[in-house]
TrEMBL record:
Stretches the record annotates as Disordered: 34-53, 74-102
Record-given protein name: GH16 domain-containing protein
CDD domains cross-referenced by the UniProt entry: Glyco_hydrolase_16
Domain of life: Bacteria
PROSITE patterns: PROKAR_LIPOPROTEIN (PS51257)
Keywords: Signal
InterPro entries named among the record's database cross-references: ConA-like_dom_sf
Signal sequence region: 1-29
Length: 312
């Protein structure tokens, strides 16, 4: 079972800190005597790399790091669904050290609740390029079966998904991994749902459920080529879709950690989802072994970010 269709998302950029804002303004305005026609330097230039490739291992200082936006990411704030509406917060996004991660650093998505809507904070980090279509999507993700603090049992959803920039698009496309350690919507957990969407409203999608615990690190992959979408977990194929349930327009990658509902009080608790790295290869089906080989090469070379995907 997949999530009920979310309410329209309101995408709002996180605010830059004052020093970062001054830095950006200075780069745009130039100093005395500068040639007005000279282009402003990028906050963090896109490095060269294999063509049609996106890679990021999330080596950032925080959600207001100018390089995060320069590399095509934003932390969602403001209103809309899914889950507890109007509870999206940048406070849950961080980039801590983690000895269990390749390279020792992660994107951490920490959601929290005290069982009330007012006391709930959800977190989502999303791409902004609107330029990912067919090919291979992969991410190394850590799912949690238990809260980092507080009581367990919440209906939390930990997700990785490429999705259309607009829910109202006539060519709406969405390819989901959704992990529900405690179930939800009247179903028992744990469960890992893979879902291919054709239309957001009314919902039109096909899905598959893997009923097993998935706590820990996993490589999640979606390939979309030649009219077929294939989902795999650690190299094992889970589900395929075809026909109308394939991408029809360019998408962005999202990572999200949110609550279906707030069924119980019981004090504050926090839930962590972590992302080690993300990879995309345009217009090619790449095996997990070859994805990992490429990622290992980036780490060995000290490369934190590559984006050679043509802009939208």
């Amino acid at each position: 079972m997949s999530q009920p269709r979310r309410a329209p998302r309101h995408r709002v950029w996180t605010a830059l800190t004052v020093p970062a804002l001054l830095c950006v303004l200075a780069a745009c305005s130039g100093g005395p005597g500068d040639d007005a026609a000279a282009p402003a330097p990028s906050v963090s230039p896109t490095p060269s790399g294999p063509p049609g490739t996106l890679f990021d291992n999330f080596h950032y200082s925080g959600p207001d790091d100018p390089s995060l936006a320069a590399h095509g990411w934003e932390v969602r704030t403001g209103g809309g669904g899914p889950g507890i509406k109007d509870s999206w917060s940048a406070a849950g996004a961080g980039f801590p050290s983690d000895t269990t991660a390749q390279g020792g650093r992660v994107l951490q998505l920490r959601s929290s609740t005290d069982g009330t809507g007012q006391g709930t904070r959800q977190v989502e980090v999303q791409g902004t390029g609107k330029n990912l279509f067919t090919g291979t999507f992969a991410a190394r993700v850590h799912f949690s079966d238990k809260p980092t603090s507080g009581r367990g049992g919440d209906h939390v959803v930990q997700t990785f998904f490429p999705i259309s920039p607009s829910d109202e698009s006539a060519n709406y496309s969405e390819l989901d991994f959704e992990y529900l350690p405690n179930g939800g919507w009247g179903t028992a957990g744990p469960r890992l749902d893979t879902v291919s969407w054709y239309k957001a409203d009314p919902p039109d999608r096909v899905s598959h459920t893997l009923k097993q615990r998935a706590e820990g690190w996993h490589v999640l992959m979606v390939t979309a080529m030649n009219g077929t979408v294939t989902y795999s977990l650690d190299g094992k194929e889970l589900f395929t879709s075809s026909g109308k349930y394939v991408p029809r327009e360019k998408m962005d990658i999202h990572f999200s950690n949110w609550f279906i509902d707030t069924p119980a009080t019981g004090g504050p608790r926090t839930w962590d989802m972590k992302v080690n790295w993300v990879y995309y290869k345009a217009d090619e089906v790449v095996s997990q072994a070859d994805v990992q080989k490429t990622v290992d090469g980036f780490y060995s070379a000290g490369t934190d970010y590559v984006n050679t995907v043509p802009k939208a």
